Every structure is written in structure tokens, then in C-alpha cells.
Amino acid sequence: xxxxxxxxxxxxxxxxxxxxxxxxxxxxxxxxxxxxxxxxxxxxxxxxxxxxxxxxxxxxxxxxxxxxxxxxxxxxxxxxxxxxxxxxxxxxxxxxxxxxxxxxxxxxxxxxxxxxxxxxxxxxxxxxxxxxxxxxxxxxxxxxxxxxxxxxxxxxxxxxxxxxxxxxxxxxxxxxxxxxxxxxxxxxxxxxxxxxxxxxxxxxxxxxxxxxxxxxxxxxxxxxxxxxxxxxxxxxxxxxxxxxxxxxxxxxxxxxxxxxxxxxxxxxxxxxxxxxxxxxxxxxxxxxxxxxxxxxxxxxxxxxxxxxxxxxxxxxxxxxxxxxxxxxxxxxxxxxxxxxxxxxxxxxxxxxxxxxxxxxxxxxxxxxxxxxxxxxxxxxxxxxxxxxxxxxxxxxxxxxxxxxxxxxxxxxxxxxxxxxxxxxxxxxxxxxxxxxxxxxxxxxxxxxxxxxxxxxxxxxxxxxxxxxxxxxxxxxxxxxxxxxxxxxxxxxxxxxxxxxxxxxxxxxxxxxxxxxxxxxxxxxxxxxxxxxxxxxxxxxxxxxxxxxxxxxxxxxxxxxxxxxxxx
Length: 567
What we know:
Oligomer: single chain
CATH superfamily of the largest domain: GroEL-like equatorial domain
Strand order of the largest sheet: 9-14-13-10-11-12
Mean pLDDT: 84
Radius of gyration: 29 Å
């Protein structure tokens, strides 16, 4: 480092300039891309990650692995953030965007060594992106109505690269069928509206063939112990968040009682208030009460004598799912008459042993706007991977519903776009022509990686793909990598993807490449870290380690998707 810089910023500081900084940035991005490259496609391999707590994650989901990596290099962080952005936006294509970004930067390094200025490379990449988006818009297959057959093929294409693809539920129902059924049940297809968070995902250890979809809500609880009834049909459901227990003050209070009669009168007045609420519940016609708060033992027995099932201390998220699945409305005041239109309906409600635990099934709801996917597997790690896969499947179907345009998978789309860009580059003079050709080569890295992971000869495969795309009608033939049969095939009948995913991948990859190419000076302050031990014996270092603190994995909230976003 320049001594003058050291005098200016002090010792805890590092700096790399111009060619050196750019070379390090491109190298860091390429290393991250190489990390997930062999996970792409049906024949891709899985990664195992062990965190500082000793928790093991086994997955081939690129974003799940990248989220766990604690990298220090800023270029690597930018690439990981880009993968997370694609995951949050479209839910798929995270591995592809990392591979494409890494390859664009690798090609940029070759161009830089040839003496081409970074600004010219950036202009060429932006031109390549514009041509790519125009080509995608032209070749994508759009439909005026959303078809279930297309959704099934999209789900199968998405899940065939993941371990959940081998799950076969009862009556030969595949995991893709369950995911399509779940989305089809809750989506507003006319207005192209869907909220995938309305699909609850429950996990229990067991046989994967018992994975099922419930037309309602599954709650990981049991009925109140005092009840005689464990099954109820044609259920009329009352949801409430009012306490059915003796009231407690929020602050410290004092009650002065001078005689036994006063104490008895006080207790009687409390139960009289509860009796009013119980009678209102009975008069409403409900035969099951589900409360977010507590239910007194005496109230439970009183409801049980009236053949009313009760369930208390239900989570807030479960209450929201119950509202949508049963069309009930949460009652906030039980002191007066309860309107009949606030009650929900379910064909049957029952308690069932799932694995080692009992669970409550609110099933056979009429036109539910929330359903539950119950995942079963033989280990928690496999369940986590199934959870991630299911969320990816939901996201792909959501993308198609919001923008019903599809393209061929298996690298066919990238080869089509690359052929157009290569043909267009011949009409351009100067160094930009070379940049566009390198852009096309970078796009071909997707089918090349698929072929390599499938054990195919990559050189011969790319030659075949190039020749077929030069001869084929771009709107009819979609030649790509058939990883199952390990050959070049017309892939449109086998693997399809939403066009919006490809657009997002291309935009993000080019943005990352251009951002890193614009950087010519990296100034990095070395953070002060403190090594410390936690109560469980785990020893590690990070800034602020000398102060009292906790970690994200110690304080997971009540969100539905902590596994997807962190694990």
C-alpha cells in the first residue's frame, strides 16, 4: 500500500487499485459461481454446510447455501445479495444467476486482458441485455388463459431437480400434483392474484409417502384434555381472541377482602361473567371454539357438557390461516350475542396421531382460501429440503399466474438468445462485436453446466446445440439438454419455465457484472473482532463479541418461512 495512504487512513486499512482491485473482484465472483455450479439441474449434486452451532444443512438450493456463507470480500457479498434478490422476487433461478454472473465476469476478464476498456465492456453487456429481453419477449409462449396442465408441467420441471421429486403420496399423487392442487385451490385466476403465504406448510417426521394436502388447516396441538368428543362433522367454528379465563390485571394491584363472604362473592362474580360468555357461545350454534388465548378448566367442562369442542392457546398465524380456510371471522367480544355470519365451516374436524404427536385437522372446508401441505420425511434435514423445494414450486406457479408466459428449460432459452446475439453482433463494427460474442458465450455456460453435471461431452454437446439452433425455426424448436436421457432434445415438451424468471436472471446477472466492472478502487477497513464463547460451548469471533448479544438462529420469530430465508 502507498505509504501516503497509510499515513492518511492508519494501520487498520487496506487498499487495492485499478487492475488489481478489478482482478480480485472478478476472481471472488468466479469462485462463488464455481461453488454452486455443480448443483445445477436434475443431475446436480448437493452441498453440506455445518454452521457454528454444529447444525447440518444438506441442500442443492443455491440461495440456501449462499445465505449461510459468511464471506468477507465485497464482490462475493454483492453476488450473494443478487442471488437473494432473485430468490425474493421470483423464487427460482438463484443458481443460474450466480453462474451467469460469474461467467460474464470471467469473459470480462478475458476482454480486459485483450485491451478493451471497462466502459466498452459495460456498453456491450447492456446492449446484449437489451437484445436478450427483446428476444425473450418474441420467443416466449404466452397464453390467454391459465391452464392447469401447464401448471403441472411447470411444477414438475421445477421439482425434478430436487429431492422432493421422488415423493409419491397415496393414490400415486406426486409432490408436483400436491403443489399444483394447493395453488389452484387458493388462487384468484381471473384477477391473477395469489398469496403463497396462504399455503401453510407443516412438517412431521415419518414416511414421505404420507405427505398430503389438507383442504383446511392443520394445527400442531391437541384438543383440551377434558373433552369427551374427538371428532366432529359439519363443524360450525367460532374463532375468538378473547380470554375465557379469570381476568388478570396488567399491573400490580391489591384487593382488600375482610370476610369469607366477600371472597366468595368476588369469585362468584368472576364466574358469572364467564358464564355469560359461555352461554353466548352455546346460543351461537357453534360446536367448536378455537381461542388464541386461554380457556379456564371450568369453562372447558361447561362447553364439553354442551357437546362443544374447545381449543386454546392457538398461534396467531394459525388463527389467520383458520380465518381464510373456514371463512370464519375472529370474534373479539363474547359479552353480547354472536352473529351467525361470524362462524366458519369445516366438513370435519378430528384429532390424529402424526408421527409421535397428535395434530388437529380442520378438513373439507368449502372453497378454502388457505390450505395446508403436510410434509413427511425420515429426518429433519430432509424435511427442511422438502420445505425449500415446496416454496420454490409455489413461487414458480405464482410467477406463471402473474405473467402467463413460458419458455423452454434445459438451457434451450439461453441457446436461442445466444444464437440471436451472435447473429446480431455480425452487424456491429468495432470492439463491441467482441463483447457481444463473449456475452453469447457466457449464456451458453448454462447448457454447458447442465451437460457437464449430466456426464455428457460438453464440447460435442455445445456444437450440436449451436448447429441445431442455427437451422431450427426459433418459435418451433427448443433444443436443450435432456439430463435424464443425456442427449440434446426438443425440450419444450419436457421442461418449461416462466419467462419472467429468465428475464429476472438476465437483468440481475448483467447488473452485477456491470457494477463490479465499474469498480477500480477498493478501500477496506479491517473490522475489530472479539473471540468469545457462548453458554453451550460454541466459540467464534465477530464484531461486538465482547458485548452481550444473541444471534438470529436464537431468536427466530413467528414467520412462516425461517427455513427458506435462513436455513
